[in-house]
Amino acid sequence: MVAPIERPSPPGATTGRGFTVQHVHFAYNAVMNFPSHHITPSRRDFLARAGGGMGMLALAAMLADEVQAGDAKRVANPLAPKRPHFKPRAKRVIWLFMHGGPSHVDLFDPKPELIKYAGKPLPKELGAVMTRRKVAQNALLGPVRPFRKCGKSGLPISRFFEHLPEVADELCVIRSLHGDSVNHPQSVYQMNTGSILMGKPSAGSWVAYGLGTENADMPAFIVLPDPGGGIKGGPPAWGSAFLPATYQGTTLRPGRAPILNLRPQKQISAAQQRATLNLIGRLNRQHLNDRDNDDELSARIAAYELAFRMQSAAPDLVDIEKETPETLKLYGVDQKETREFGTRCLLARRMIESGVRFVQLYSGNTGGWDAHSNVEQNHGAMCRRTDKPITGLLLDLRRRGLLDETLVIWGGEFGRMPMSEQGKGRDHNPWGYCVWLAGAGVRGGSHYGATDPVGLRAAEDKVHVRDLHATILHLLGLDYEQLTFNHNGLDERLTGPSEARVVKEILG
């Protein structure tokens, strides 16, 4: 004899997408036509009804299993590691963003002609160029400090840098980068998101979306802003825009409170916190069952879980007291002028060592490297703060065996004009400037491309910002044409709708 299903189930237990366990029980009883008072059927009744009933029950069970799998997929960790499109050269990225626009002609792009024509107008044969504040009519300003050949490769580096020549043979300088805006916010957006307009996902968000993280207790994309103030354009530079919110950059600070409002109040125990999170998780999942493909809610569920794990992981990660005195000295943490930036460089190494996928570290507050009035004064101060920490970072990554699988990027949102501004300064120049890459199998001790004779605009082997982005993705094993997200009917990508190319000439 067969009795109706009366297995005990927890209240509200669900098999997925609104199917509760009670629904399945009810479906079985309804299909079998058992009366509500559960009168036991005869063997003949059971056999007569079983042909159709068992099929319907099997279908109900299959549907329940299918939707349960769908729910599990939707609330699974969106930051779980994902396979790249092809074998990568790099597994992680550290982006050293020099906010404000460092002067390429004073740091990495020596121009003998600029010395020759210093104090004279821009040669007419170089043509007109869009500038701000009518600086195009000003006299040319020669390099503020001389260059010298560094390392075995003889890579030219300005004397603004005292320590960076130690790692010259790790650097690949792209001298022909160019973008599309002369203003800070738009250029910050373009360098970070590929577009001069706000509202596009950042490169770090695309990488997090494409690859996930190797550390389940930390976000895939972490941002270390300059404590002196925000950047021009603000947090959208590391936002996820239309990508799920899980992939946006998480800002982290040194000290006992690396993430604001992360730790619970002292009177709340770990057990209480866990119980609260469990309750929130159950309620969120019930809510999610009725709202198919709600990425925001799925991201929130995952964020609660991640935040709980980060309460113990993040403080340990930013605790640099465990580092040796020699390591602290290597990064300049022992010196007042380099302590702050050196600490963040050291944190960047600790993060990628722990499995964080993408770390972006900003140098420069709202002013930063923006040397309108005095390049010597501005760049002298900014280089003193960053030179030793960046050199220490590259040396430390190399000796720990991390540099070959880590891509390090240095650069700002644009360069600066060869003409003078206010006598000793330079205005913005997005038409030709430098970034350098290190690690991840790029050709160290080399440079690629060139600006014109005075450094005004990219002239040879031009590299647009979208080409730089395509190259970064390529080094991570991601095809920039395949890494897409459908938004408003369009397959969006980091490089945008325009053509892009991977700069394979810089690969070792």
Structure description:
With 508 residues, the chain is α/β, with parallel strands linked by helices. It has three domains: 14-75, no CATH class; 92-255 and 318-506, Alkaline Phosphatase, subunit A (3-Layer(aba) Sandwich); 262-316. The chain is built from twelve helices and 19 strands. The chain has helices at residues 21-31, 43-75, 104-107, 112-116, 184-193, 203-211, 270-289, 295-317, 325-330, 336-354, 375-399, 465-475; strands at 14-16, 19-20, 92-98, 147-150, 155-158, 171-178, 221-224, 250-251, 358-363, 406-411, 415-416, 428-429, 433-438, 446-448, 450-451, 458-460, 463-464, 485-487, 490-492. Strands 3, 6, 7, 8, 9, 10, 13, 14 and 17 form a nine-stranded mixed sheet that branches. A hairpin with a 6-residue loop joins strand 15 (450-451) and strand 16 (458-460). Helix 7 (270-289) runs antiparallel to helix 8 (295-317). The longest helix is centred in the N-terminal third of the chain and has 33 residues, at 43-75. The radius of gyration is 29 Å and the shape is globular. Residues 1-39 and 50-75 have low confidence and may be disordered.
Domains counted in the coordinates: how many? 3
Whole-angstrom Rg: 29 Å
Helix content: 25-40%
Strand content: 5-15%
Instruction: Tell me the CATH topology of the largest domain.
Output: Alkaline Phosphatase, subunit A
Shape: globular
The end-to-end span amounts to 75 Å
CATH class of the largest domain: Alpha Beta
The CATH architecture name of the largest domain reads: 3-Layer(aba) Sandwich
Q: Strand pairing plus helix content: what structural class?
A: alpha/beta
Total number of strands: 19
**Biggest sheet overview:** 9 strands, mixed
